[in-house]
């Protein structure tokens, strides 16, 4: 089967399963169907051990949601199936890029939908389209026009059709169809933008040779000055931290005996300061431990 076959098939399954039904068990059924079809569609070279583990977790998470129907199970279904589709297409892309890939696909859905050459077959498309237009669309339009004319000219003719009621919720059917097609299209036909793909090598387990090239971060500081700046800054910050830890513990536990309630209140009051200090520590580490400095032979003191 081609990509468009999977899109239309899973859309049909989605509509059949969810029309006039609750989510619970039905989402589990759809999840299992997606997982089995993904396994069938995945090329042999992409069926790695990691892919097969994700496939099993997709089945188990679908069963878990059918049984529990809670938010945690829903997150398990969502994450495992997105990972399954991701690994089905590319086994080398980093999992960290999973979220930006599918977020951008959600926003570019309309543009990719009308790019028919990318997901519809190029052969026999014109012949199929001609048959649909000639055998379905034109007769349907003509029947609808003449039906309106005849209904306006004869009340008895109009009554032949107006007395029947279709037990079909049209709006629900339209919404479910659109939602099912949106999910199926982005699942089977997602695209990895070039901007995201270029970032994949940055997340490699091994640094490339380009990353080991030492370059000054700022134009007003050379490498030696920047390196020494880091040594002095971290030395001073460590002394400051040691003094703070000593004075803080003295104030908390030695100077005045405090009750448990007082200690708890003071702890909550200092949470913001702790969070801010963690953020600042991360920024300092990012400032001095980056790029070529990680491979700098002269940066042992740093």
Give a brief description:
The chain is an all-alpha fold and 302 residues long. The protein folds into 3 domains: 3-121 and 171-197, no CATH class; 125-169; 210-295.
Topology:
Elements: H1 3-18, H2 24-41, H3 49-68, H4 71-89, H5 98-107, H6 109-113, H7 116-119, H8 125-153, H9 155-162, H10 170-188, H11 194-197, H12 223-255, H13 260-269, H14 271-288
Low-confidence stretches: none
Q: What summary fits the major beta sheet?
A: none
Number of strands: 0
- What is the count of structural domains? 3
How far from one another are the termini? 58 Å
What does the oligomeric state look like here?
A: single chain
Radius of gyration, whole Å = 31 Å
The number of distinct helices, counting runs of at least 4 residues, comes to: 14
Mean pLDDT: 82
Overall 3D geometry?
Answer: elongated
Order of helices and strands: HHHHHHHHHHHHHH
> Strand portion, in percent?
under 5%
Structural class: mainly alpha
Helix content: over 70%
Description:
- By secondary structure, this protein is an all-alpha fold.
- The protein is 71% helix and 0% strand.
- The longest helix has 33 residues, at 223-255.
- The radius of gyration is 31 Å and the shape is elongated.
